[in-house]
Fold this protein.
Amino acid sequence: MRRNRSTKIVATLGPSSSTLERIRAMAEVGADVFRFNFSHGTHDDHAARFAIVREVEKARGHPIGTLMDLQGPKIRIGSFAEGKVELVEGQPFRLDLDPAPGDATRVQLPHPEVFSVLREGAELLLDDGRIRLRVERAEAGAAHTVVIAGGTLSDRKGVNVPNLVLPIPAMTDKDRKDLAFGLELGFDWVALSFVQRPDDVAEAKRLIGGHAAVMAKIEKPSAVERLDEIVDLADGIMIARGDLGVELPPERVPGLQKKILRVAREAGKPVVVATQMLESMIANPAPTRAEASDVATAVYDGADAVMLSAESASGAYPVEAVAMMDRIIVEVERDALYRAYLDAFHASARQTSADAITQAAARVAHTLNCACIVTYTTSGATALRASRERPDHPILGLITRMPTARKLTIAWGIHPVYTEDARDLDEMVQKARRIAREQGFAEPGNSIVITAGLPFGTPGATNLLRVAWVT
């Protein structure tokens, strides 16, 4: 069951990966977490795939994480009388609330909240940025624009409004219904789309009530501006480079990726790099060299996980895409430069016994060349602290709650094992020795470092460090 890498893989399920055979194969070759994209598919589709994931998990005897990705507010234009129009640079074009079919001069934008914040000079991006409009005059219920990048525009294309905070919540009525369904199924993570402000995360956490961890997707410039506050509230971060690359100049995205990674690592929050990582494998059995380098860059930067979207959900080679991502990660983590890049940044320790002991555990493991660091945890906080240190030895998480074990499948370096809590120190050491040996981390004669909290079962109370030898 043990992976020979620390960086995790998130694979999206969809039409190409809905059978027991496909999902089992993806788990075997490297998928640690399965993403369910609620922008597509029915509740029945998702329920069937979720049941298969849990069946595969039971057969493998190892936790598998699940992440539901909410659609979020989608802003779209209406339809055209002819299905599409051709827009030419320099021509005027109006967006309004009129539901009548559009033409080359106007089209409906059924979102009055957008008009309420538009101002002269604002840009509107349509069809993933292929069409660009500049607002010349805005009024209640209409925006008079000029085309600055033209092309063919067809029915129901999406609209992005960069550099403006829209007065809309991150969760729509559809999202709330999907969330209630997902929580009933038992998802481990909820990804919140189009986060604009910290309040969006706070509202989601209120609705979820601790039944799942919240992952804030950073895909809006307004979220980047309030990144520290959002990271502080969220349980994890996803760098959703698709929409981020539409609303911001493409040349800014690589630098922002590194910045977001650094902020999330400093906070000890799992961070996922997503979108177009192996895009060409939707149709081809191998990626481009640039795509392989893109995955490698995220790994060198210390991402907790990298994600496949359409490559595994609707592509022709879902299993091969997971296997390729696994091979790239393994190769990077073998590189001598990998540790140098990781060690170039270490999160600042807080003045707590938990942080002090976790830092000490990483140093002791390095000095004694221990087989692994064993963390006993209930809430996951102890294991996440260990992961935050990015130690040069694997982390074996002995976790007393299965939901916590599943949640930690996305975190760097943690191999989660669900087990009952120890009753005393002797049992703690014996169990750590036994499971380290059974899971392939240690052999007789190897040393291990153990961290835990006393009294046992107290969430977040890391206050003990022990070195033990496996017999």
Q: What stands out?
A: The longest strand covers residues 131-139.
